[in-house]
Amino acid sequence: MQSVFTDCPHREKLGWLEETHLVFPSIQRFFDVQAHGRSVVRRIAEAQLSTGMVPSIAPEYPIFSGAFRDEPNWGNSIILLPLYLYQSYGEITLLEEFYSNMKSYVDYLSSKATDNIVSYGLGDWYAVDQSTPVGVTGTYGYWASVNGLAIVAAALNQTVDAQRYRELASNISMAFHKTFFNATAHTYATGSQAADVFALEMGAVPSSEQQNVIQHVINDIRHRNNHTSVGEVALPSWFRMLSHFGHDGVVYDFLSRTDSPSYGYAIKNGATSLTEDWDGPAPSRGQGLSSQNHFMFGAVDEWFMRSLAGIQQADDSFDYRILNIKPAVVGNIRYVQATYRTSRGWIQTQWERTGSNFTLKLQIPWNTVANVYVPGVHATSDYGTFIYYDQEIDKTMFKVESGNYVFQSIID
Fold it and tell me: How many domains does the chain have?
């Protein structure tokens, strides 16, 4: 993390851009990267071509060809990194300064699309299941660009643009569904986990099919003995969609594995940092020894903080002004404690499970409000305002302001 976000420092020392946004939610939980991120965005804008295309590395020291230079999930860092910096730190000046660059990149992708499908790129890089069509990952990158730009436009009060990009994002989602949905198998494209989680995150899946599609993902995970099959592009979506649909226990089962491919397998075989290949120092699929210092699979840290510890920012919030505290009680975990420093102060969650008794302790920073979702029944709070009990997800919601709180409940 010197000058640029760098993977494989022994080999290339290049600023590959996909990681700047795919792994950003994990990075910003442990490092204050507001100033560094601002510098990286400026390097990206400097590398952008007059056509609007954003090269896959910035600064663009070597000039690659084909998808290694032009990839939707790499190039869209010009939109997503400034957006994430705004959401994490309230950094709105970057949105203002580079708004025209963002629009130019979306225009470029639109020029490459056919009926709102973008069919080029590197695919789901380093996936175990390499069957996912390039058109799936390329279109996801196109949608992420447009959806992100719609949020940016709204933040800048560019209401006409915001509506236009929301409509385009919706059209891309509908085109994705029309092109790739398999109604018989309740899955997308080849049925890969990546294709399904992309569809879910894009809002491409009709409400009547959402449970079928997420169940298809889970069935494939179980069939693979509780393993993921995705690569670096789909991994953040994989974690988020399993959590969104209430299946953090499936994530826990994967993270408990020590056989290939898994984080546990890499650790078991001597990895001391994240690696380029799922198998780390002991590749078992004939790919050869890969980079041993490569942060592209770091999305797991987002799950630890967002789901296990429950520290989430509300969708319509920025600078952590509105929180959703929603811890996932999974597996045989009995105690979790996490802290995160925002510009407003420290957020801390600590939960403990003793038998059927659950206790959640919170610290909420200054000038912040939080919706607290306490697992289990008969939830009580010392000061929080009770809102309602949701039987479907077995959680009780409270609303609190800044301060320290204790919640207790009974869980199965």
Answer: 1
Work out the pLDDT band at 289, boundaries 50, 70, 90. Answer: low
The answer to the question of residue 331 being in a domain is yes
Residue 140's alpha-carbon distances to 199, 274, 327, in angstroms, are 8, 25, 28
CA 313 vs. chain centroid, Å, equals 13
pLDDT in tens, 229-249: 999 999 999 999 999 999 999
Count of all residues that appear for the chain in the document: 412
| Residue 251 covered by a domain | no
Domain that holds residue 340: 322-410
The model's pLDDT over 317-338, given as tens digits with 9 standing for 90+, comes to 999 999 999 999 999 999 999 9
Looking only at the bridges linking them, the beta strands covering 322-325 and 369-375 are parallel
Residue 392's CATH number: 2.60.420.10
- One-letter amino acid identity for 179? T
* Distance, CA of 206 to CA of 320 (rounded, Å): 31
Half-sphere exposure (CA, 13 Å, Cβ side) for 15?
Answer: 25
Between 74 and 10, name the one with better pLDDT.
74
Residue 285 pLDDT greater than 60, yes or no = no
Q: Pull the structure tokens for residue 301.
A: 């840290």
**DSSP output for 73-105:** HHHTHHHHHHHHHHHHH---HHHHHTHHHHHHH
Tell me what the pLDDT averaged over the chain comes to: 94
Report how far residue 98's alpha carbon sits from residue 8's, in angstroms, rounded to the nearest whole number. Answer: 29
Structure tokens at 357: 């008794």
Give the span between the Cα atoms of 187 and 193, in whole angstroms: 9
Q: Answer positive or negative: Cα dihedral of 244, 247, 251, 252.
A: positive
DSSP 8-state assignment for residue 406:
E
- Residue 391 in any domain: the answer is yes
Strand partners, 371: 324, 399
Quote the percentage of the chain above a pLDDT of 90. 86
Query: Are 290 and 275 spatial neighbours (Cβ–Cβ below 8 Å)?
Result: yes
Which tokens sit at 358? 């659950």
Distance (Å, rounded) from C-alpha 55 to C-alpha 45? 10
Task: Centre a 10 Å sphere on the Cβ of residue 191 and count the other Cβ atoms it contains.
Answer: 18
The maximal CA–CA distance of the chain, rounded, in angstroms, is 62
Hey, which residues does 409 pair with through a beta bridge?
358
Q: What is the pTM of this model?
A: 0.96
* Other CB atoms within 10 A of residue 178 CB: 12
**Does the residue 301 lie in any domain?**
no
